[in-house]
TrEMBL record:
Belongs to the UPF0337 (CsbD) family. Residues 34-44 have a biased composition (Basic and acidic residues). Residues 6-56 form the CsbD-like domain. This is Uncharacterized conserved protein YjbJ, UPF0337 family. InterPro entries: CsbD, YjbJ_sf. It comes from Novosphingobium mathurense. Pfam families: CsbD.
Amino acid sequence: MGELKDKAKGLGNEIAGNAKQAAGDATDNPSLEAEGRAQEKKGELQNLKGKVKGALGDKV
């Protein structure tokens, strides 16, 4: 169950991060772009965590 939860959170953060980056670029707001990049990276790590949990199965 943790695998799917982590992957879902990760995907949500990646999508939100990409949206913030696009909004920051469109409005010439480097702070918002940086925030979006950070959120996207957080999402990528959450997704990776979910994949590791899936690979290890119930041992985690």
